[in-house]
């Protein structure tokens, strides 16, 4: 029986992709870069590479946040401050009107009275706190765990150990993490010894060794899944 649920934020509850696209385009324009489809695609490739190195323990958070822009600027031959553009991007991202994914509000309204809900996010603290407040999501959670504030990122076991230690009477046997990322949410949950549920609206296939315990294609399917567990 599940009692405690950890929920990811970006692309699990909030539409991060739309907010990112708008903020990123504006930030690049301030650096004198036209945000063409090719430039945006290359940024996303570099961004994914840098976040994977963070998850693998190769880079620090600060190295990821500035390094993705620095790498892009080198390839484009642009002389711009990666730190300034990173700061600009995060400010713009925080100010983008948050858009909930289909079924997110209804899910939280349903689950919050019946389960102990906790947010578990790898996003930047200043950005996530503002987005949670603007989306009126904070009230659904008994605790909010943001990696920058904890000093360690998903999927590291230490991130989850710090979360567990802050929850009264916590039990791994009755905990579940729900998120869209195989590398941070699902791997992180497995590393920490709790049940995992992959939110997979695109119905991708998990590579061997990365399979979650459970999988849903829509947030509306989670309550029925919880009844079966």
Using brief descriptors, characterize the structure shown.
single chain; 229 residues; Rossmann fold; 2 domains; 6-stranded parallel β-sheet; 10 helices; 6 strands
Could you describe the 3D structure shown?
It is built from ten helices and six strands, in the order E-H-H-H-H-H-E-H-E-H-H-E-H-E-E-H. By secondary structure, it is an alpha/beta fold. It folds into two domains: 4-15 and 99-228, 3-Layer(aba) Sandwich (Rossmann fold); 16-95, DNA polymerase, domain 1. Strands 3-2-1-4-5-6 form a six-stranded parallel β-sheet. Helix 6 (125-134) links the parallel strand 2 and strand 3 (143-146). Helix 1 crosses helix 4 (82-95), helix 2 (37-55) runs antiparallel to helix 3 and helix 3 (61-76) crosses helix 4 (82-95). The chain is globular. The relative contact order is 0.16.
Brief synopsis:
This protein is α/β, with parallel strands linked by helices and 229 residues long.
